[in-house]
Amino acid sequence: MKRMEYIFATVLILFGIGCLAMSGSMMVEPSLYSFLGVLTQICLWLLFPLIIIGTVYLVKKWRNKK
Amino acid sequence: MNSIVTKLGLTILITIMVVMLPLGFVTNKIFSNFYYSQIYKEVDSLSSKYAKTTTELESKTMIAMFERLAGLTNKEIIVVNRDGIVIGNSGLEAVETGSRINEIQYKLLLNGASVEEEFNDRISNKRYLTIGKPVQKSGEFIGAIFVYASLSDMYTSLEQFQDILLLAGIGALLIALGITYIVSKRLSSPLLEMERATRKISSGDFETRLSVHSKDEIGFLASAINDLSKEIKTVRDNRREFFANISHELKTPITYLEGYASVLKKGLVSSTEERDQYLDIIETEAKRLSILIHDLSEISKMEEGKIELELQEIDLTDLIKHVLVKPMIKAKEKGLILRFLSNDDSQAILGDGLRIEQIMINLIENAIRYTEKGSIDISLFTVQDFVKVKIKDSGSGIPKEDIPHLFDRFYRVEKSRSRQYGGSGLGLSIVKNLVELHGGTISVSSKVGEGTVFELSFPRYKDEVIK
Q: Which residues in chain B have Cβ-Cβ distances shorter than 8 Å to A11?
């Protein structure tokens, strides 16, 4: 993959996270603090499956090596 | 549109949308139903309480109390008398005091049933959920109380919720798009690399190799392409070598034939002995040519799978004893000892007798040809389900580097002395093909100066093999 393609994909993901954070903080008093709070939580939720997949992958790789 | 990235991307995108759109609809429905049921319960509870606790409707005090209650509960209340005429209104603009309620509703209330509807106030442009309950005194219908709860707040909240849901959906879709783009690119890039590699291979660049990164189907495919490239290269090299060898092998006897025939034709011979010598050479070369063509035809048939074996039970002990008669004379002429060792067990295999004879004769004659002194030992024995034949000679041996090529067509260990030893250079190649056609294997081990051992292995014959 070229660098431009990675940038394009990253921008799409960042915009997506932004939209989610905005919708998550829409009902409360609009402030940067609440937006950033929701943004952090969304990032953690996104990381959660990635951590699980990563752990499974590493365990599988370690077992294969063994 | 034909790119795999587009196809994969669109497929994943459509899958996400197929999941997200109904999910969004259901979420919206859950929220609106939840809100509505909350309002319904509240209005139903209020109207029931009012209807139960009221004993009189027509007094001004009571109507004023209902108007105050409406203000406190943030609901609108309408009081109707026993004739269905509105006698109290807390502030609903579309319902006038003194007007009559709907006839159907009135009849229902008269029968003790409650009524409910979604009411649209055209003047204030507001929507209400209304529930009317009959008020009874000593079992007699004395009027009804209608409680109106505004649905506008619910619809405004729902609209806001729908906007939020849409924004969240767009966000999720963008994340999915980004991840899909990376995944589809990463999945398709090895395929594109393979496409480029196969095009290179098809254009004749057989040195092309793919780097195998993964142990999945894509990795296996890359590995298979590499194997294919290697195999095609081997086939091409073999074909080139074969044509070079065959032209050389054919050219040599033909040159002899032409040369000696020309000498004889021109009468350039001084004696009868010389003429006979030349005729002997012509005969030998013609035989060599004939053997070569026969062997070529055999090998070609084998490679095309056109050889049909007449399979039957063969006792290898008897077969080898029978085969040894002819080479025994040659061995004696060279002063070699030819020994055959076999135990008494049944050494039967399933094979074509003539072809097995051909294999044995070829290997034994080879051993005699390349052995100048000493012995040739043939042993026959059984190991588990296999019958093995070992042909061991005390000849000059084969250098280690020549052993892997021994069964190649036209491969000769001592190229300079090939004419002295004779043979077409195809014998071992034919032997290997025939052994494999019988489901057997052939291996060779050798040490220079000590001799060579050829080991044949055939599946042992069992009755059930042909049943």
A: 178
